[in-house]
Design a protein that fits this description.
This protein is an alpha+beta fold and about 325 residues long. Helix content is about 30%, strand content about 25%. The longest helix has 21 residues, at about 25-45. The structure holds 6-O-phosphono-alpha-D-fructofuranose.
């Protein structure tokens, strides 16, 4: 039986894929793995460590921060900043961009991150996740960062990935050459390659949407979901965990579509373009799937602000195409 390789070995083996490789990206990916292990440890013992519940603070979206949100944000900030590869970070938990090191003049990469998505689920022991995206800086090294470094289209991503703190903890990422999944062995504290070359199944029959919001959704989404419900004899079923990374990961493995349309409460959509939709869209396309908003490709969207929201539909190509045809039918 061939040896299962660790995340570190895989990163080293594949770093040659990158032109002008300087080792900075290798260091950055390694740092993400380390931060994920630290956050995982706290998530797994949250009920014992008195870190369940709200931190008593709010993030920039006036959402109550969970204690674990704050812990995860501080952990990723600390480790990514210390690594010297990162010039700046955009985080769901930070109102503004964070410049790393010497005012962001030396690091080569920009990181977008949702440190702990779905964190309110941790109190009820439901899986949660970290979502991250890595871009090259636009301004030359040695200059101070500007908006253009942070507000890049998803097509400019160098790396996208997520950590799923579930029944086991997984790190799944792509550098543009396919999607690979690593499972943490807590006994040795290492991530091992467990899901090489992840691809959506040929077809999918799971639809994930918050049913309570359907009445507020656009006509196309309502028509599509009605079609799914009528296809129950073809094996269609509804599955919605309420934790984006968990719903996405399940659909990636079993096949399906996740939908979060714009609603009355969230007229631009609830999910954030830069650190939720774009990274998962990159992964989806690399895994043979598709990701759109109401008008077309998520990856082509150029954000105008750090916390911009977007409607988000992601999953098997044939399901996204079926939704698109509902848009066409509804003019
Ligand atoms: P709703 C969690 O707050 C989150 O951002 C995603 O993880 C999840 O898919 C979605 O919101 C759930 O939203 O409105 O269905 O509770």
């Amino acid at each position: 039986m061939s040896k299962t390789i660790t995340l570190q070995e895989f990163i080293m083996d594949t770093q040659a894929e990158f032109p002008f490789v300087s080792g900075q990206l290798t260091r950055l990916l390694t740092d993400i793995g380390v931060a994920a292990k630290i956050v995982n440890h706290q998530v797994n013992r949250a009920g014992l460590a008195g870190i369940l519940g709200e931190a008593g603070s709010q993030n920039s979206h006036d959402e109550a921060q969970q204690k674990l949100d704050v812990f995860a944000d501080r952990t990723f900030m600390r480790i990514l900043t210390a690594g010297k590869s990162v010039a700046g970070i955009g985080s769901e938990e930070q109102d503004q961009y964070v410049f790393c090191g010497d005012d962001g003049k030396s690091g080569k990469y920009i990181v977008m991150i949702d440190p702990l998505d779905g964190s309110s689920n941790v109190d009820v022991n439901v899986s949660i996740g970290t979502i991250f995206s890595i871009y090259r800086r636009v301004t030359p090294m040695g200059e101070t960062l500007s908006d253009q470094d942070f507000l890049q289209a998803g097509t400019e991503q160098v790396v996208a990935g997520y950590v799923l703190y579930g029944s086991s903890t997984m790190l799944v990422y792509t550098t543009g050459s396919g999607v690979n999944g690593f499972t943490l062995d807590p006994a040795v504290g290492e991530f091992f390659l467990s899901h090489p070359k992840m691809q959506f199944p040929e077809t999918g029959s799971i639809y994930s949407i918050n049913d309570a919001l359907l009445g507020q959704a656009n006509e196309a989404t309502q028509q599509f979901i009605t079609g799914c419900r009528e296809a129950i004899d073809n094996g269609f079923k509804a599955r919605y965990i309420g934790s984006l990374v968990s719903d996405f990961h399940r659909n990636l493995i079993k096949g399906g579509i996740y939908l979060y349309p714009s609603t009355k409460d969230h007229p631009q959509g609830k999910l954030r373009l830069l650190y939720e939709c774009a990274p998962l869209a990159f992964i989806a396309l690399q895994a043979g799937g598709s990701a759109e908003d109401d008008h077309g490709s998520i990856l082509e969207k150029v954000p105008s602000s750090l916390h911009e929201r977007s409607p988000f539909y992601v999953g098997n190509i044939h399901l996204i195409q079926a939704l698109r045809s509902c848009w066409m039918n509804n003019g």
